[in-house]
Design brief:
With about 350 residues, the chain is of the alpha+beta class. It folds into two domains: about 1-255, Glutamine synthetase/guanido kinase, catalytic domain (Creatine Kinase, Chain A, domain 2), CATH 3.30.590; about 265-354, no CATH class. Helices cover about 45% and strands about 15% of the residues. The chain is built from 14 helices and ten strands. Helix 11 (about 290-305) packs antiparallel against helix 12.
């Protein structure tokens, strides 16, 4: 099964560091919120109505002409997955924490084997179409999301108003129903105390800054998610172009900060990244926060050529492998926080040796 393979592997196509500007941009994502006409929102629907939504989407995705364009997407019921498996899907950014906690009948997920396409079924909205790419590829993610959207809309009647656009549960999503986001690694801006200045202005141009797992989370490991806040009054192309342009500016700022560190504080920078490498290579106990912090510093060292023995893909995989859900999956059992800290350190040492 596709879902079993996805849960059991730490790698994801969006973590390959193969996309443009992947030294700074970890990933690009586009999400479209859609609801069906004449069907109550998920919070008000019956279990039968919810299951009808899942079955209808599954039927469309199974059609030969759709599979030829979009590939093979598997539809699974969240109730068939363990709590640990659902947590791993959250850690891989494939479902939301809210969706993971709701295992009532009719809550599901459609997903492609490369994880580039996933559709949350009956989360906050009937459909949350998500496309996830490596590096700065917001336009490419949007184009693929549009393909998925068009195939589904040709068979389903979406709730749409000529004045307001697509109708959603949350008023902030009304209009295009689109959230475009990028995940950025900004260690040099943090080290040089410029991150606040650079990021604080984004809200003034309709963008939001969040942590590793989106809304309600704080930035850890110098990882930030930047996404559009406005979905009404702008076309999807404008939202994509605005986010791409702003991301390009932030990339320039981060690169400038990295060069400043190399020129003005090289020995301190090398000491920092090499200490982090040593901690990852030899520590016996490692918390999640420590792991992300050290991985961030080592990644900066790899990007700047200070560390040559580790590749970015390994570091990206460790971001997933060191999360609580995946650690327990590898151990084959539930673990206390202290046991996870021991297991985390062990996995990092083994991965870096390999």
């Amino acid at each position: 099964m596709i879902i079993e393979a996805i849960i059991n592997r730490p790698s994801s196509k969006w973590l390959e560091s193969s996309g443009p500007f992947s030294d700074i941009v970890i990933s690009s994502r586009v999400r479209l919120a859609r609801n069906l006409l004449d069907v109550p929102f998920p919070q008000q629907m019956s279990e039968k109505q919810a299951q009808d939504v899942v079955d209808g989407v599954a039927e469309i995705l199974a059609e030969k002409e759709v599979r030829q364009v979009l590939g093979n997407l598997e539809v699974v019921a969240l109730s068939e997955l363990s709590a640990l498996d659902r947590q791993i899907l959250v850690e891989k950014h494939l479902i939301s924490p809210i969706h993971a906690d709701n295992t009532a009948r009719g809550r599901g997920l459609a997903i492609r084997d490369d994880e580039a396409i996933s559709i949350m079924l009956n989360e906050e909205d009937h459909l949350r179409i998500q496309c996830l790419f490596s590096g700065l590829q917001v336009k490419e993610a949007w184009e693929l999301a549009n393909q998925v959207d068009n195939h589904l809309e040709s068979k389903l009647s979406f709730a749409f108003d000529e004045r307001w656009g697509y109708l959603t549960v949350c008023p902030t999503n009304v209009g295009t129903g689109m959230r475009a986001s990028v995940m950025l690694h900004l260690p040099a801006l943090m080290i040089t105390n410029q991150a606040q200045r650079v990021l604080s202005t984004l809200s003034q141009i309709g963008l939001a800054v969040r942590g590793l797992y989106g809304e309600g989370t704080e930035a850890t490991g110098n990882l930030f998610q930047i996404s559009n806040q406005v979905t009404l009054g702008l076309r999807e192309e404008e939202l994509v172009n605005n986010l791409t342009a702003v991301t390009g500016h932030i990339i320039e700022q981060e690169r400038s900060a990295r060069q400043h560190l190399l020129q003005k504080a090289r020995w301190q920078l090398e000491d920092r990244v090499c200490r982090a490498q040593g901690a990852l290579a030899y520590a016996r106990i490692m918390t999640s926060e420590e792991a992300l912090s050290h991985l961030s510093d080592v990644r900066l060292g790899v990007d700047l050529g200070i560390i040559k023995s580790i590749d970015l893909r390994t570091l990206n995989e460790l971001i997933i492998m060191t999360q609580p859900g995946y650690l327990q999956k590898l151990a084959g059992q539930e673990m206390s926080g202290a046991a996870r800290d021991l297991k985390r350190a062990s996995i990092i040492r083994e991965k870096l040796k390999a």
